[in-house]
Amino acid sequence: MTIGGPGDDRLSKSQRRDAARHKAKQLREDQKKKDRRNRVFLQGGIALAAIAIVGLIAVVIVTSIRPVGPGPANMASDGILIGEGMKVVTTPALSPEAKPIPSKPDATGTVTDIRIYLDYLCPLCGDFEKTNSKQIAKLVESGAATVEIHPVALLTRKSAGTEYSLRAANAAACVANYSPDSFFEFNSAMFVDQPKEGSAGRSDGELVAVVKKAGVTSGLAPIEKCITDRTFTSWVDAATTRAVTGPLPNTDLKAIKGTPTVLVNGKQYVGSLTDPKEFAAFVLQAAGETYSTSTATPTPTPAPAAG
Questions:
Q1: Which of 51, 74, 253, 277 is the most buried (most CB within 10 A)?
Q2: C-alpha span between 166 and 98 (Å, rounded)
Q3: In the chain, pLDDT over 70 holds for what percent of residues?
Q4: CA-wise closest residue to 235 among 77, 91, 71
Q5: In the 3-class helix/strand/coil scheme, how is the chain assigned residue by residue?
Q6: Buried b (16+ CB within 10 A) or exposed e, 256-265
Q7: Is the confidence at residue 275, as pLDDT, over 70?
Q8: How would residue 195 be classed by pLDDT, with cut points 50, 70 and 90?
């Protein structure tokens, strides 16, 4: 195989060698030019990729830093308090960074104070809710007890990246804000066909559907907007932090360590989550102890004998 063109066979050996050298030199120069072009394209591509990465990081940072916003109305204690007749004790919305105002238990000891910290993705919370929701409702309806429900978001990172716990607690805050007397029904509905921990959970649209299934009619449009806008997510984050760092009011328990955390007159229930009789007995015991303490009168001190 020859390197030159037609007629190269008529060239001398020296001429053919010079032609080969010239051809090789030309090939090397062409390759250098090609390499320089590739480096320019590569460097330009790297620069564009770097710009894109920086932009993506900036977007992530901006979206992950949620500006502090006001809390929902009717949750000034970080929970929603439901009393006789299933009526919510209304409270104004707290301004950003304001400290929560603890609810005051009944001073007479005749109304049992039930407080529940829950996560809507927590399967154990689902067990407790399905087991005890009806008997709690009867106690509250009759005025024998109040129930204060604190939605928290401990499992936000366990929903395949969708932040379901956070969004679900935000939805609860939206209902508390716009349709408070529907909150108990909504809370119960959230545990019907409860999403499994580790799953994506419900979409925002599906959360709105739960609101409708719970019979919420008043404030439905603003609730839907509140859910899709995720209006109270910064408040949920703050309330969750307060719950896990403490102090918790009206109890010797310093902070919650998981969900559900159930307090009855300040005492933590640690019994079965699937035995309604065990929880009922605990409520009766706590109520009896509180009543006897609140109604106890000091033993009279004997008068000194006359000298």
A1: 74
A2: 20
A3: 80
A4: 71
A5: CCCCCCCHHHCCHHHHHHHHHHHHHHHHHHHHHHHHHHHHHHHHHHHHHHHHHHHHHHHHHHHHCCCCCCCCCCCCCCCEEEEHHHEECCCCCCCCCCCCCCCCCCCCCCCEEEEEEECCCCHHHHHHHHHHHHHHHHHHHHCCEEEEEEECCCCCCCCCCCCHHHHHHHHHHHHHHHCHHHHHHHHHHCCCCCCCCCCCCCCHHHHHHHHHHCCCCCCHHHHHHHHHHCCCHHHHHHHHHHHHHCCCCCCCCCCCCCCCEEEECCEECCCCCCCHHHHHHHHHHHHHHHHHHHHCCCCCCCCCCCC
A6: beebbbbbbb
A7: yes
A8: very high
| Cα gap 148→224, rounded to integer Å | 24
Residues 148 and 116 sit within 8 Å (Cβ to Cβ): yes
Amino acid symbol at 195: P
Which token pair is 43?
A: 């460097």
